From TrEMBL:
This is Beta sliding clamp. One of its GO terms (molecular function) is DNA binding. One of its GO terms (biological process) is DNA strand elongation involved in DNA replication. Keywords: Cytoplasm, DNA replication, DNA-binding, DNA-directed DNA polymerase, Nucleotidyltransferase, Transferase. Residues 247-366 form the DNA polymerase III beta sliding clamp C-terminal domain. It comes from Pseudomonas congelans. It comes from the Bacteria. SMART domains: POL3Bc. Residues 1-119 form the DNA polymerase III beta sliding clamp N-terminal domain. Residues 130-244 form the DNA polymerase III beta sliding clamp central domain.
Amino acid sequence: MHFTIQREALLKPLQLVAGVVERRQTLPVLSNVLLVVEGQQLSLTGTDLEVELVGRVQLEEPAEPGEITVPARKLMDICKSLSNDALIDIKLDESKLIVKAGRSRFTLSTLPANDFPTVEEGPGSLTFTLVQSKLRRLIERTSFAMAQQDVRYYLNGMLLEVSAGILRAVATDGHRLAMCSMSADIEHADRHQVIVPRKGILEMARLLTEQDGTVSIVLGQHHIRATTGEFTFTSKLVDGKFPDYERVLPKGGDKLVLGDRQALREAFSRTAILSNEKYRGIRLQLASGQLKIQANNPEQEEAEEEISVEYNGDSLEIGFNVSYLLDVLGVMTTEQVRLILSDSNSSALVQESDNDDSAYVVMPMRL
């Protein structure tokens, strides 16, 4: 194996692929990246057995074919340390990889390509193509609500649901729920659901960098695969049953509040400073035309804000974790947001004022 490549051409795919590779590995080969040269193409693969990412680069100069695995982090650090316009010469010499650029020379240890695990290909059951920016928006609007390390492992990921012409993403950690839908050219009459693990979703979002580019998605029985121009990403699916999100959506709330998103966000942020650091509770008091926000903490400190809102129902007092409200307002983009409430023990539904494609549910707190 022998090829030359510009530093920039190698660094971009290497950084993305190295992001998948785990540092603390039981299997040494998993901290390596697989390099394969075939014809005029170099492919780089990283995996942690859950997710796999393959990046492809066209080589400008003729190359000798071959395949080998080398330490991902070290190869990336070497590339980063070279000058921007460096031409890198990479050659396999017996069991060492020789990396040369200008007057620099590095010798890296390798492990055979045969030791490198590949994520098994299952039969693809459903294939469709989306615009990258739309899928990215879907993920950005919901991923914050995924659980981090919940024992209910199916919450540590995102539900992707396909039904006639619609792709929907849902995430929940049991205290809040985020849902976003987009119309998509998908011919599939039945409802098809998969749960993509947290790491898989976040890595996939990093690939969606071309605003108008497309991404092709394959949903198999045990895997999801996403292919953009030069990358193919594969993730195992979580085997479990996602909660019935439609039952969680509050129905019949009779108290409708319309407010300015930025003003609410700033008021919540200020009040949060004096909330209890552990529970982050704030109290909302609704009366005609105004919302009063209060927080206090064990040190007997208090914060209070008053903000004008469009509301003309009965007065209501309800408590929330302020972080959850701020997360929701942080991903919304419209000037006005609407809050639908029913009583102090029922979840709130938060939506953009003129847009029904996203819905957020936040459970109340007893204060």
